[in-house]
Design a protein that fits this description.
This protein is mostly helical. 79% of the residues lie in helices and 0% in strands. It folds into 3 domains: 26-68; 70-162; 164-219, no CATH class. The chain is elongated.
């Protein structure tokens, strides 16, 4: 091929136009790459903000997943933390009673569905009841005392025994107060016999049983 022929071929190439479809496709590819690069650059520039949002979403997800966690489950500590935050604005006696009530519900669920959780559930129940009973001992409100005693009776109805030295002190105090109050009343023969039985149980340090007798007498 002579130099003249080569020059003529190059002139012919200048007249060649690419197909419209190919031109459009190539343009989209180039712009697509540029768009991806722009998004990636934006993320890099705002990395701390994206990290904070991701962490927040992760915490929310864990909180939701821990909602039904029972004592002994991996997510239960997260649930306890959430409960503390939720109840932090409540006064001590309301907070302690609410937690004790929730641990009672956990104990029931563990007994019904998850035997592996029974040990941790009993331990959590014991700790929460101890705290609630200490609050009740400091309180003079009958409603608070009665709620603690109701929870204790429900625990016993499940056939579960927990160590709670404070509950015996609470029963003792309440029985003493009720015996002195009832002595000032005019009683029937049957009520007198029930009071004597309650006093006998009290002297035998069977405070819970004496309390039940007092309740029956007062009903």
């Amino acid at each position: 091929m002579t130099e003249k022929d080569l020059i003529n071929n190059l002139k012919q190439l200048k007249k060649v136009q690419p197909r419209k479809e190919w031109a459009v496709f190539t343009k989209q590819e180039i712009l697509g790459i540029q768009e991806n690069i722009s998004v990636f650059s934006f993320i890099l520039r705002h990395k701390p903000a994206f990290a904070s949002v991701s962490l927040f979403c992760f915490i929310i997800a864990l909180t939701v997943l821990s909602y039904n966690a029972l004592p002994g489950d991996v997510l239960f500590p997260i649930r306890k933390t959430t409960e503390k935050i939720e109840l932090s604005t409540k006064i001590d006696q309301v907070q302690s009673l609410a937690i004790a009530q929730r641990r009672l519900e956990d104990l029931k669920k563990a007994q019904e569905k998850a035997e592996k959780n029974m040990g941790p559930a009993i331990s959590e129940m014991q700790n929460s009841m101890s705290q609630a009973t200490k609050i009740a001992l400091k309180s003079q409100e009958k409603l608070v005392v009665q709620q603690v005693i109701d929870i204790d009776n429900e625990i016993k109805s499940l056939g579960v025994l927990i160590e709670n030295q404070e509950i015996e002190q609470l029963y003792k105090r309440e029985v003493e107060l009720e015996i002195e109050r009832i002595k000032q009343l005019s009683l029937t023969l049957e009520q007198t016999e029930m009071l004597e039985k309650a006093i006998e149980l009290f002297d035998q340090e069977q405070y819970a049983e004496a309390y039940l007798m007092i309740l029956e007498l007062s009903s």
